[in-house]
Specification:
There is one protein chain. The protein has 329 residues and is α/β, with parallel strands linked by helices. Helices cover 47% and strands 19% of the residues. It contains 13 helices and 10 strands. Strands 1, 2, 3, 4, 5, 6, 7, 8, 9 and 10 form a 10-stranded mixed β-sheet that branches. Strand 5, helix 8 and strand 6 form a beta-alpha-beta unit. Helix 2 crosses helix 11 and helix 8 packs across helix 13.
Length: 329
């Protein structure tokens, strides 16, 4: 009888403790945020991800009543910032503004990462995206994707493409085209997007998958020949260009997206609040105009859609990296 009574008492106490914790968590979520929110950016100041952070955080601070402190933590291909957030307390006060490459490419490109993207993070929403343009030096005798594929098949290993380094979207887009098109192109990596673009402008290489913002001025000036864009739909910046999907490669989609993530065990109420606040900011005309000036398109999602995109793209790039034998130096 005594043992039974003791077990009942323990059960009651345990239930009261859980109920108290639940009440405290709900109260904390209702009052959230009570202090500044730290936003990790995995690159130094000045890049596209940092630019997105500078556009949205002042608006979020205004609407949420607390500062958003941008913490630029470049290095290790973005993995440093990702690890910090993966190991942070899941209380809504540490978040990650991530580039899609970090979340979907790095897991296959780097061994023994101290985090697991699918396990350690909760997706909140996509924020912005940019696609790429397949461009050629004007001397290349091809004016469509179909003509270029035929030319590449006739000259295996004789056409070169530039990129800003191993494992970046410019590199992977070309590798995906190689895999899907059954062609042999030679990769020539450069230290940055600007020298990669200069290489094709100067005729050192024949092909480049360049960002819309970087390539459109050169295309308009006739210094580069544009064949197609890499997104799931035509770019609003270049609506006259077909997509690769339209050009004989169904499902071809290489876009660099930026999204907000938090540690995996962050409470649902906090995630809903963050999702609601970010979407409200992204609907503002001045925010959309600022994004557009950077060649970025505002794009949003719910947490489940964002998580599914990360999972799907991770599979795509894992296959490309394995098939292409891509390795970091």
């Amino acid at each position: 009888m005594g043992d039974a009574l003791t077990r009942v008492r323990r059960t009651i106490v345990k239930g009261l403790v859980i109920a108290g914790m639940t009440t405290a968590l709900c109260a904390a979520a209702a009052d959230y945020p009570l202090r500044p929110i730290r936003l990790l950016v995995p690159f130094p100041p000045g890049g596209s991800v940092d630019t997105v952070s500078r556009i949205v955080t002042p608006k979020l601070a205004e609407s949420m009543g607390q500062q958003w402190v941008v913490d630029n933590r470049g290095g290790a291909a973005g993995n440093i910032a990702v690890e910090i957030v993966a190991k942070a307390a899941p209380d809504g006060y540490t978040a990650l503004l991530a580039h899609s490459t970090i979340m979907t490419v790095n897991p296959s490109l780097y061994k023994n990462l101290p985090f697991d993207v699918l396990r350690d993070f909760q997706a909140v929403t996509l924020i912005a995206a940019t696609q790429y343009v397949l461009v050629l030096h004007p001397s290349v005798p091809a004016n469509t994707v179909k003509e270029f594929i035929a030319l590449a098949k006739a000259k295996p290993g004789q056409l070169n493409y530039s990129s800003s380094g191993v494992g970046n979207p410019m590199h992977l887009a070309a590798e995906l085209l190689k895999m899907r098109g059954g062609i042999d192109l030679v990769h020539v990596p450069y230290k940055g997007g600007a020298p990669a673009a200069a290489a094709v402008l100067g005729g050192e290489v024949q092909l480049l998958f360049g960002s819309v913002a970087m390539t459109m001025p050169q295309i308009r000036a006739g210094k580069l020949k544009a064949l197609a864009t890499t997104g799931p739909k035509r770019s609003p910046v270049a609506p006259g260009l077909p997509t690769l999907d339209e050009s004989g490669f169904p499902g071809f989609n290489v876009t660099s997206s930026v999204g907000l993530l938090v540690p995996a065990k962050t409470g649902g109420a906090i995630i809903k609040r963050l999702h609601r606040e970010v979407l409200a900011v992204l609907r503002l005309a001045d925010v959309q105009n600022a994004m557009g000036r950077q060649g970025l398109e505002v794009i949003t999602s719910n947490p489940a859609e964002f998580a599914a995109q990360i999972k799907n793209e991770t599979k795509v790039w894992s296959d490309v990296i394995k098939t292409g034998g891509i390795r970091t130096e």
